[in-house]
Amino acid sequence: MSAKTSLGAFRAVLRAGSYTFREDAVAYKDFIQQTKGLFLKNKFANENESQPLINDAYEAAYFIRHGIVQAKKDEGKEDYRVKLDKTQVLEHIDKEISLKQIDDRFIKRMEKKVAAEQKGKEENKEENKEQ
């Protein structure tokens, strides 16, 4: 991989992961190990092979930052809590809504919606394990 651009891509992926997994140390540690492994695997790729890989890394960084949310189960409850920021909310709503229209109440509603979806996914996993 070309040193300058691959290093930038590596840093972009790590920054995205550090934001997304900031409250989940185990997931972040696994993320770092896998990211390093993938970059080291392609360390000696030639210029023609490296550019698509670098582009993929930047796309992955964007997805990791904007497309992944971490849900935490509330202690003693069956509910999950999700913390979203404005950019994550904008990725998943109607594009007619502007940033000015996204206030704390709107974000809380979106967090509850995502948490409910996460809870449903967890319940489906449990049902599949039982079968």
UniProtKB/TrEMBL annotation:
Recorded superkingdom: Eukaryota
Protein name, UniProt field: MZM1
A GO cellular component entry from the record: mitochondrial matrix
One Gene Ontology term from the biological process aspect of the record: mitochondrial respiratory chain complex III assembly
Single GO MF descriptor: protein folding chaperone
